[in-house]
Amino acid sequence: MTDIRTALVLGATGGIGGEVARQLAARGWKVRALHRNPMALTNRDDRFEWIKGDAMNRQDVIEAADGVQFILHAVNPPGYRNWAELVLPMIDNTITAAQASGARIVLPGTVYNYGPNAFPVLRESSPQEPLTHKGAIRAELERRLQAASSKGIRSLVVRAGDFFGPGSTGNSWFSAGLVKPGKPVRAMFYPGKSGVGHQWAYVPDVARTMVRLIEQEDRLPVFAAFHMQGHWDADGTRMIGAIKRSVGQPAVKVRAFPWWILPLMSPFSEMFREMREMRYLWKEPIRMENASLVTTLGEEPHTPWDEAVKTTLSALHCI
Fold this sequence. Notes:
By secondary structure, the chain is α/β, with parallel strands linked by helices. Helices cover 36% and strands 18% of the residues. The protein has helices at 15-26, 58-64, 83-101, 133-149, 173-178, 203-214, 238-247, 261-265, 270-277, 291-297, 305-315; strands spanning 6-10, 30-35, 49-52, 70-73, 104-109, 121-122, 155-159, 162-164, 187-190, 198-202, 223-227, 231-233, 253-256, 287-288. The strands form four sheets. Strands 3-2-1-4-5-7-11 form a seven-stranded parallel sheet, sandwiched between helices. Strands 8-10-12 form a three-stranded mixed sheet. It has a two-stranded parallel ribbon with strand order 6-14. The mean pLDDT is 90.
């Protein structure tokens, strides 16, 4: 590595991309952020070097990646729109840029890659046989990274549960299901069954984990993948309880998520179609094992439940 450590972030205005970028900058990294129109951003972080360009344009990504040690690939189409047409071409551009620059690709991973044959405990070696369209695309992303490793192109995948935290978007179950951003918490709509566990991941913890792994580059194989234990809610009550305590309203009503409405709305909304497909992840407990991560880092970064939830609600202007 050079004395000046440089990372390119694709998706710096998103939740996980922005958080990783901020943590890297705080640790002395030079951060380049690719954006289609950076001058139009009203909350632009001036610690980053903003570069005008499009992740769909291969030459833009190659030029932005020149001289960097890492490329964080955290760019996703909002609201699940046009995934098939956009997601795979973008990862191909990033792979080409990494080959040209010698950088390692860092990808935030999910549980969507897995089907029921891998449940209930997900390990890095668990088979990836997804049931859904989106899951198939996520699995293909990783397959292309693994294929690129045969050419010496390095990558790191950190898989985690459903995101919540500052900067989490309307794509997350926390802000699209449990609460309504910008409104006080008067009621909650919980997607899971009573007594069924669920895997959550606090965005700052995920970012901290990625940064710590990035800074142990010499210990990582060409293709590296790690699972985070994150915030494991064993019976579906821990997240609800933390929200109630954070807003100081122990009597907040908890209702079942209205899954019945999604088939009615799906013809008019790609986001609702994708949410409907993900219902299988709420029907049985799915837990991620982090033994490999703990072996590498010694521990997993973990923010206490109440602190993480209260910070998230404040960021969403629900408190």
